[in-house]
């Protein structure tokens, strides 16, 4: 309640906490709802944030384990970003991108291109990650149309992938349940296996598993035909799929096959960019690849303003400029493309990242991973994996069969509920708990986070034993 009282004291009060819950149940449709509760649901009400912490409607202070949604990279309540928003709004709140432009977007494009690998030199700004992926895919289609290859439009994606919620981007998703009741452009998508080492066949070496993934990719290209495949889209680390870190060398080998077969490689860095792995972009600095396009969002403004984008290779743009269709139009744009406030916020956010936060993230990441790894001592935990400041605790009924708790698919929610009571917000994903805290987290705060998570899992084990769901 303290957060609501603070807001009322500033004269910016909205409805009280109880009123907000009632209003949500009567009027607000939450994202990813179930049919049985759609339009009647109220979720945990958050009143305020500060640093790595948020405060719920009861006044309980929680570590923001997911950093919002992989995005509050420099932490909550940064006055510098709030001031930039105000100053830019007072100078220029909006301009139409159809026939005008603004200075912050041009400067931000230059700054972002300076961090991108290879010849990625130009940026198209969107409103978020889904629209960024959608833009990249539509650009691929336009590129092949202009080059006289209208049949080269198929998209390679992988099991466990998550690329967005717009129609085309969502069609790429490969997570369990995402597409059970939703339509998609299935005729345009070819699915490949997830590069998840934990789920490889029993007894198979990591090298053999990696070779099998590469063979599958190469065989798929040969079977489908390089003349029909326009792009491969892949997250460097499959984030919402459970923080799946691919085997060493896998992405480089996929990149080589794409280059050899004239398939555009689109690296989806909506999560991994802007510090999550310690660098502005992970594709080059962490994985040693130079994609044809990189999509980004989330951390570009640390979640303070909706912004995303696509960085496009200079080679692709040159090929379009040299084509026989100079009047061909890329008929794609958004009302809020290159929004001046979003771009101004992103510039200041990038200043803060470059000044100290990226270096700090690289420094604490090994400690974060090592402390999380200690949770494998718990019998409910099958694997702890991660990279940078991304981590996943995957729970299994037994480690030998790697049964993902078939009797209780909501074990992640159970752990989250206990952790919430103890002072930690968790991202529950079926039988997994995903952690991606703000990049400013300290070692002491990492200790607090892991201690609470350990206790939350331990209490969940006790619950499952009492209910007879799991014997451990």
TrEMBL record:
Gene3D superfamilies: Aspartate Aminotransferase, domain 1 (3.90.1150.10), Type I PLP-dependent aspartate aminotransferase-like (Major domain) (3.40.640.10)
GO MF term set: pyridoxal phosphate binding; transaminase activity
Matches recorded under Pfam families: Aminotran_3 (PF00202)
Keyword Transferase: yes
Protein name per the record: Aspartate aminotransferase family protein
Cofactors that this protein relies on: pyridoxal 5'-phosphate
Key words of the record: Aminotransferase, Pyridoxal phosphate, Transferase
Provenance organism: Mesorhizobium sanjuanii
Family: Belongs to the class-III pyridoxal-phosphate-dependent aminotransferase family.
